[in-house]
Amino acid sequence: MVKEEGVVEIRFLEPEDALSLMQLRHRAIRECDIYFGTPRRVELARRMPYYRRQLLRYRMQGRAALIGAWQGEQLLGMTGIRIRNHRGALVGLIYSTFIEQAFRGQGFGKLLVEEGVRQIQALWQIEHFLMQVEVHNLKALKLYQNCGFEITERQELAFWIDGVGHDVFVLEASAGTPGK
What domains are defined for the chain? Predict the structure, then answer.
């Protein structure tokens, strides 16, 4: 899959992209300790071989993938997709969406979320989508709502980082939802 939006290419991340993925995630976790639901020290300890293995595993198992927005050789942002069981049914999970700070507000997040939805439908024939966003991340919440996702619940203490619990909103959308 290659999709070009002007000078931005949207495509699956491959094992050869491990260094760019590592650099992006390390910049993200330095910006905010709770991105990705991973403690800062854990994320920063991960090196390129970890990300290469992750991307290889995703390719081999076929139940998850990372999608990146590229401008030339620079990875501007990413989102993850995977299959998840939710309330007894398979849904497509969109997770770990992140855009480099200099490129926010330019539509790249929306492109990635929309491509994630399209790929979930194409790869797994799933028509219901789920994501979680930390309740204080209002910009991300607005982005996801603009993509047609609606808050369906609030989960208290959904994840813990360094002894601090974080609440999340669960957002859901279905194929054909306005904004999709």
Answer: 2-174 (3.40.630.30)
pLDDT of 19-61, one tens digit each? 999 999 999 999 988 778 888 999 999 999 999 999 999 999 9
Whole-angstrom CA distances from 178 to 46, 73, 138, 148 are 39, 34, 20, 6
Which residue do the tokens 């919440």 mark? 141
Q: What whole-number distance in Å separates Cα of residue 55 and Cα of residue 141?
A: 27
5 CB neighbour count, 10 Å cutoff = 12
